[in-house]
Amino acid sequence: MSYEQSEQRAASSRAKMYAKTEELDERMAVTESAVKSLTEDMTEVKTVTAEVTRCKLMGLERRMLRLNREGFR
Predict the structure, then answer these.
(1) 71 φ, ψ (degrees, to nearest 5)
(2) Number of Cα atoms under 13 Å in the Cβ half of residue 62
(3) Which end of the chain is more exposed for a tag (fewer CB within 10 A), N or C?
């Protein structure tokens, strides 16, 4: 194998490695976005859970269930 062929193979290998690195960067960005979205959703879930717990502690569970069945008016 000549020097030029070796250099071409090395350049091709580097190009493939850089392409894979860019793909991984893009996938990581998508993953980070998904995690951020899930974190925001969980914050909302925790807020609702805290409100339900508070209502239960105040003895309003039955009233909440009745309102849910009848609809809020």
Answers:
(1) 90, 145
(2) 1
(3) C
Q: Tell me the pLDDT tens digit for each residue of 41-65.
A: 898 888 888 888 887 777 776 777 7
Q: Residues 44, 50, 51, 52: is their CA dihedral positive or negative?
A: positive
- 72: number of Cβ within 10 Å: 5
The pair of structure tokens assigned to 45 is 């879930």
Q: CA torsion angle for 14, 17, 21, 22 (degrees, to 10)?
A: 70
**pTM as predicted:** 0.54
Residue with tokens 């925001």: 40
The predicted-structure confidence for 27-46, as pLDDT tens digits, reads as follows 999 999 999 999 998 988 88
